Structures are given as C-alpha cells and as structure tokens.
Prior knowledge:
The structure is a single chain. The chain is of the alpha/beta class. About 30% of the residues lie in helices and about 25% in strands. The protein is built from seven helices and twelve strands. The protein has helices at about 15-30, 60-70, 100-110, 125-135, 175-185, 205-210, 230-245; strands at about 5-10, 35-40, 75-80, 90-95, 115, 135-140, 140-145, 150-155, 165-170, 190-200, 215-220, 225-230. The strands form three sheets. It has a six-stranded parallel sheet with strand order 6-5-9-10-11-12. It has a four-stranded parallel sheet with strand order 1-2-3-4, sandwiched between helices. The protein has a two-stranded antiparallel ribbon with strand order 7-8. Helix 1 links the parallel strand 1 (about 5-10) and strand 2. The two termini are about 15 Å apart.
Amino acid sequence: xxxxxxxxxxxxxxxxxxxxxxxxxxxxxxxxxxxxxxxxxxxxxxxxxxxxxxxxxxxxxxxxxxxxxxxxxxxxxxxxxxxxxxxxxxxxxxxxxxxxxxxxxxxxxxxxxxxxxxxxxxxxxxxxxxxxxxxxxxxxxxxxxxxxxxxxxxxxxxxxxxxxxxxxxxxxxxxxxxxxxxxxxxxxxxxxxxxxxxxxxxxxxxxxxxxxxxxxxxxxxxxxxxxxxxxxxxxxxxxxxxxxxxxxxx
Length: 250
C-alpha cells in the first residue's frame, strides 16, 4: 500500500497509445491499493480541440480530462493550451507554467527587447516572460477558423531595432511563427526568436522556421531537436503545490 504516486507521461493524439497505457497503469495502481494518484502530463496532446469547430465533433480536451479524473485524485498539466476547458473539474487540477524557465533561457542566450504573443488568448504567457525579463510585450490579432486553420490580422508594433522573441505554448507547423516573424522584420526587428513549451515541429516545420527565425527554444516536454529547456523544475513546482493540498494521515 502506497500513500502518494505520481504517474508521469505525455499523452498525444491522434495515436492514443500513451493515453491507454496511462489509463491502464493507473487503474492497476488503484487496484493495488494506491491511496492517492496524480497524473503528471508534460504534454497534453488533446488540448487544441477545446471546443466544437464543426457539427458532431468531440471536445477531446475535456473528454480526456474526464477520463483521467475518474481514476486520479489529481492532475498536473504543463502549459495547457486552453485552461478554461477544465474550469468545472472536481479533481484537483494544477496547471503548471514553464514560462520562468523559458524566460531564463531567452534572457541568458539572446536578451530580447520585446516579447510577442501570436494571439491575445496567449497574452498571459507573453506577459509572464516579459515581466520576468523586464521588457515590453504585445500580441497579434488572431481568429481560429478550425482546429488547424488560423487567420492573423497585421498590427503595428514598436519593434524597430529590437530583438524580439515570439512566445507560445506550442509550435506545430510553424506557419504562425513564420508569418509573425516576417511582419516583425518588416517593422524593423533586427532579430526574431521563437520560444515555446511544446515543440511538435510537424510537416517540415524546422526547415521552414530556419528561413524565418534566428533561434528556436523549447522545453523537453516532447523529444525534439530544439529541446534546450528542462521542464523538470516547472513540473516539480506543480507537484509541490499538489502535495501541499493532499490530506495527511495522523
């Protein structure tokens, strides 16, 4: 019999192997009299389907969380794409930010003058990084058409002669970063860097990004060639907060 178990594993879609493995292992732990189980998820791969973009679609971000909450006493997720989707969960949820580690890496390597968020919805991440570094920040106007299509509206930014870092929770195809970088350079940015928590880099993204940005920084929430920032300190902070809320016997 074990008091507290933390099961650490990223889960990704469309391949559901990791999710099924996690559910089966947690169920086995429950049946072995584990008292308190927390699922620790560095990368929550179902996060972008946080609403119905078309008739008949499932909101997988919520569905997967509901499945985990049936088995777990707590869930810790690193930089969840749309935190509001878990707003009514009864399970103890800890949403962990890796932005302090991203900020430290950026400040050490490139010392940016300006932080940009690709959209207003992610402005909290850019704000956190900018405040830690001590520089200005802004965002691009964005409209999501569906789970894979985004439209951006150009915006005048005070970046002339500045080193800019674009900060987001994830980079997939890199298209958003490339378009944002081009707009920044047209407005006078001398360097543009991209930073994110989750580096998916699908469909030749790294080759595409190499023609548009001066550097790429990601955590190791997923294995990728640009994983230069450890997510371990952020996850440890999240686990510490969950542990502080766990009832202690005696």
